[in-house]
Amino acid sequence: MDETQSFWAFSLQEVLPQLAEGMTLTVELTVAAGVLGMLLGLLLAFARLSRHRFLRWPVMAYVTIFRGTPLLLQILFIYFALPPLADIRLDAMPAGILALSLNAGAYLAEIFRAGIESIDRGQMEAARALGMSHGLAMTRVILPQAVKRMIPPVVNELAALAKDTSLVSVIALSEMLYVTQRLGAKYFRPWEVYGWAALGYLLIVWSLATLAGRIERRLAVRGA
Amino acid sequence: MNRDHLGAELLKVTGLTKKFGNATILHGIDLTVHEREVVAIVGPSGSGKSTLLRCLNALEYPTAGSISFRGRAAFGTVGESGFKPHSESELNAQRSMIGMVFQRFNLFPHLTALGNVIAAPMWVKGLSRDAAQVAGRQLLARVGLSDKADMYPAKLSGGQQQRVAIARALAMEPALMLFDEATSALDPELVGEVLAVMRDLAQGGMTMVVVTHEMSFARQVANRVVFMDGGLIVEEGAPEQFFAAPKHQRTREFLSKVPQ
Prior knowledge:
Low-confidence stretches of chain A: none
Oligomer: heterodimer
Mean pLDDT of chain B: 93
Structural class of chain B: alpha/beta
Helix content of chain A: over 70%
Distance between the termini of chain B: 18 Å
Shape of chain A: flat
Number of helices of chain A: 8
Largest sheet of chain B: 6 strands, mixed
């Protein structure tokens, strides 16, 4: 190792290649937990909106628990406490994805529920009065309108998720922050290492926001 | 208007009671509507007329009493443990035969005017897009909006939106049309165009139950006027008799307060 290496030589040779590997894992975690979290969130939201108490109450308990405890604790719990408790032993990657998905699902469920509830009651009534079933009215009338309103808060949540993936470094998943910390300790040139990592996260979140902006504009040209 | 042209009994409401919690909104309503009849329901706000209309399309379930439509129990039956609705498919089938027009239009804002009209025929009846569009354009022409087919509701005036909403309800070829204060949310200068469409419908033989504050419409178009107050039908009769010689004190008080 050459202590006198220039900023660019050091960045290109030592930092960026390894950081890129970590970033790949960060993106994989974000996409996997994002997709699973949205599916889970949608299921939870519909259960929460159900007429049946035995569907609503467990969801309320679920959301309370996952919003009320730190994500870091949830990650540690799933990785370290599940094996002795339930004899479920997960590798770091599945454990990390599971914890992030379960957590994001709780927040996304509330976003989806609020989005669906924000649509005027008259829309459902008009659809039902035309003979549409509840499911048909939901998928063809309510959701298309609700989705538009949900995009900004969902992007917020996904941005938070992208950054929260850094917490799985505690179970030794070599995502971007884990790699960064190792590099920082090894070379003792923290500002370059952490600076690049910050840019890496910015890039991910910026890409996400750009994509969402495009979707939102495409939906906006059609109707109110 | 004479009643000779009226057909068979279409809708029969017997002892209809509706409670919300401890509040009783409807106290045992009896009402029969025949084919091709236009019934206007008038009365002060809070008299239960909108709730009655909403029960006629199962947007509210009755607490007691029964509704029959074409001689069959409509939407479900009131049992010992409350209202037990029919199966979802039967409920939807009955609802699709009864069109409803709302005070606040309730058009689907993400669909064009034509899109609103063809939605239920395509999704519920399974009509092809082409067939639904042909019928949909005819309906829009009938309410005078041929040139607005591709406009989104947000770009239409209130009167135009309500006319699209009428076309949307007609697209399911209902046997009965319900109007819930269809002109109450409109600017005064837009009321006439909607009433004109409703008048055309009535003259075309559509069976209609119309909750309205437009006494001139009730007087000129309805076969029968029903006056409700406090969740009860206080008085009903042919419009000429109802307006010229109301029998009840409450009816007279109401009529003295509203513009004729």
